[in-house]
Design a protein that fits this description.
DapB_N, DAP_DH_C, NADP, Dihydrodipicolinate Reductase, domain 2, 15 strands, six-stranded mixed sheet, Rossmann fold, 2 domains, alpha/beta, seven-stranded parallel sheet
């Protein structure tokens, strides 16, 4: 049986959206709409500003014109790559749902928002069911901090602790991410503005997803932040400025989850502006019987993030209506 043609709207045409547009075209997906609030991109051909660097005949519209885009596009998928929190992407998810269009987002909180934004998630769940469509979150965490760890767990007799450590260059993700990591602040300002931050860090949702997937009830959960500085000046392309010696170039964020069964999940993220000799890293260790460590050398984090989402599209379409987190879907797989 031939799968229905995927007709996609991309909402957010920044760095990640530009990669996604290329991956969609490579997979034979028809791009029928593009939305972005950056005035420098509005009105331009989505293909020309994407990693494809060629015209597709689909022009970028401002979010103020989103309803018109959905009305004309006859899309069955909307891909949202704008912000991180449910409150910030609610309007785009709501617009998709009201038009009966399945939506998938890179927003970290959408990966598992049931505990942190229950009211918004339940409203979207109800709306999606009313309009017979599915909403979900995916990305790097879906594969590498979720399902891959679950597969490793399936080959382990006893798990005492799960520890994931990733490092990535935040300079390719825009000025809002750099600001979230405190780039450019003094160490003292970081301690005042970031260290006591109570909004859950993205790893918070990832740990909650993993607990739900493995059937582990959460007893306690905490997060801690430490500034990262450098001994020489570093240029930030996202902020378009130099970060002076001693100023913050990023941070180490650690989310630790203690479960009722005694299993500890620790997720460490080191996000910073790179020096020329630094690379992305990924390491996951399951401590127990046996202890297993999986290391990926120089992971292409941005590309893996986008590929993980695109490879989820058919699962999104096949899922039941509602807000369905991917712990309730089949494991991700490669899509030809």
């Amino acid at each position: 049986m031939t799968e229905p043609k995927i007709r996609a709207i991309v909402w957010g045409c920044g760095h990640m959206g530009q990669i996604i547009i290329k991956y969609l075209k490579d997979k034979g997906v028809e791009l029928v709409g593009a939305i972005d609030r950056n005035v420098s991109r509005v009105g331009k051909d989505a293909g020309e500003i994407s990693a494809l660097k060629r015209s597709l005949g689909t022009f970028i519209h401002h979010p103020d014109e989103a309803k018109q885009v959905f009305h004309k596009a006859n899309a069955n998928v909307c891909i949202i790559s704008t912000r991180s929190l449910m409150i910030d992407i609610y309007d785009s998810l709501e617009t998709s749902a009201r038009h009966g269009v399945n939506a998938i987002t890179l927003a970290e909180e959408a990966f598992y928002p049931w505990n942190t934004s229950p009211d918004l998630t339940q409203k979207l769940d109800k709306l999606a069911k009313e309009h017979n469509c599915t909403l979900t979150g995916s990305g790097f965490q879906d594969v590498f901090l979720g399902n891959l760890i679950s597969i490793l767990a399936a080959g382990t007799h006893r798990i005492d602790r799960i520890q994931a450590i990733i490092q990535y260059n935040i300079d390719g993700y825009g000025s809002s991410v750099a600001a979230q990591y405190g780039v450019g602040l003094s160490v003292e300002a970081f301690k005042q503005q970031i260290s006591g931050y109570t909004e859950p860090f993205p790893s918070w949702y990832m740990n909650e997803w993993l607990c739900a997937h493995l059937g582990l009830a959460i007893r306690t959960q905490k997060q801690e932040f430490w500034p990262i500085t450098n001994i020489k000046t570093i240029h930030s392309t996202s902020l378009k400025t130099d970060i002076s010696v001693g100023s913050v170039t990023g941070m180490k964020a650690v989310v630790t989850t203690e479960t009722e069964k005694g299993v500890i999940i620790e997720n460490q993220v080191l996000g910073k502006i790179y020096t020329p000799d630094e690379i992305d890293t990924y390491e996951c260790t399951l401590v127990g019987e046996p202890t297993t460590t999986l290391t990926i050398h120089r992971p292409a984090t941005a590309q893996m993030t986008c590929a993980s989402l695109v490879n989820r599209l058919q699962h999104l379409i096949d899922a039941p209506p509602g807000f369905v987190t991917t712990d309730k879907m089949q494991p991700p797989n490669y899509w030809m």
